[in-house]
Amino acid sequence: MSQIRINKYLSLCGVTSRRGAVSLIEEGRVTVNNTVADRPGLIIDDETDVVKVDGADVSLVDKKVYVVLHKPRNVMTTLFDPFKRRTVNYYLKKLRERVYPVGRLDFDTTGVLLLTNDGDLAYRLAHPRYRVAKVYQARVKGHFKQEAAIQIDRGIVLDDGKVGKASVSILGFVRNTTRVRLTLTEGRKREVKQLCKKVGHPVEELERVEFAGITTKNLRAGQWRHLTPREVARLKALVGLA
């Protein structure tokens, strides 16, 4: 294999699915020989062309790998950062295979981050259509009331015009803040922060405590582990890949 469409190549590299590759290209996140790829039908030579996503080299997958990282605060959810900020790649130095984040956590958000080079699974786990549950715990400003929880549960228009929603549990109050637990099934960009802000309670601290049933139990911030075969099988079944 040498001549290949770039969206197929990205899927074989485990970055995402072929459909997900189209989105990456449209967002201008893919380069070939330092030139931004302008169409998914672009033909590349996998032996001589240098393909990067978000500034990080990609390569063909020999073995599919699935890990969960306990992402620390103030770390980028990318493999490369042009401003030299610490990325999740820093914590995966002992992992021989290259893996890619499933979705993103904000720079200041901690908690469960899945990474894999199984592009089809990554694409489905992150896509709102598959409604994979993600659970967050947040500390928000002010005394959060049940009326605000009901408002978020019914749905709120986000900055991009789409409606975000979550089920919310109030965990407790500390001085002039409230700890709340939110369960989302679509996971739009910065959805938790937007939802809380729009009901008058900006987020001060945010942690993702669960993604599709995977947690960071027994992992300190910065530590990671391989998912078990049973966990991988369950994730695939969850999004119709079993």
Describe the structure.
- With 242 residues, the chain is an alpha+beta fold.
- 21% of the residues lie in helices and 29% in strands.
- The chain contains six helices and 16 strands.
- It has helices spanning 6-12, 18-26, 119-126, 146-154, 191-198, 229-238; strands at 3-5, 30-32, 35-36, 43-45, 51-53, 56-57, 66-71, 100-101, 110-116, 134-141, 156-157, 163-164, 167-174, 177-184, 203-211, 224-226.
- The strands form four sheets. Strands 7, 8, 9, 10, 13, 14, 15 and 16 form an eight-stranded mixed beta sheet that branches. A four-stranded antiparallel beta sheet has the order 3-2-5-6, with no helix packed on it.
- The mean pLDDT is 94.
List keywords for this structure.
about 240 residues, 6 helices, about 20% helix
- Unreliable residue runs: none
Amount of beta strand? 25-35%
The total beta strand count reads: 16
Q: What string, H for helix and E for strand, traces the elements in order?
A: EHHEEEEEEEEHEHEEEEHEEH
Major sheet attributes: 8 strands, mixed
Number of helices: 6
Terminal Cα span: 28 Å
Could you write a compact summary of the structure shown?
The chain has 242 residues and is an alpha+beta fold. It is built from 6 helices and 16 strands. The protein has helices spanning 6-12, 18-26, 119-126, 146-154, 191-198, 229-238, and strands spanning 3-5, 30-32, 35-36, 43-45, 51-53, 56-57, 66-71, 100-101, 110-116, 134-141, 156-157, 163-164, 167-174, 177-184, 203-211, 224-226.
Summarize the SSE layout with pairings.
Layout: E1 3-5, H1 6-12, H2 18-26, E2 30-32, E3 35-36, E4 43-45, E5 51-53, E6 56-57, E7 66-71, E8 100-101, E9 110-116, H3 119-126, E10 134-141, H4 146-154, E11 156-157, E12 163-164, E13 167-174, E14 177-184, H5 191-198, E15 203-211, E16 224-226, H6 229-238
Parallel strand pairs: 9-15
Antiparallel strand pairs: 1-4, 2-3, 2-5, 5-6, 7-9, 7-16, 8-9, 10-14, 10-15, 11-12, 13-14
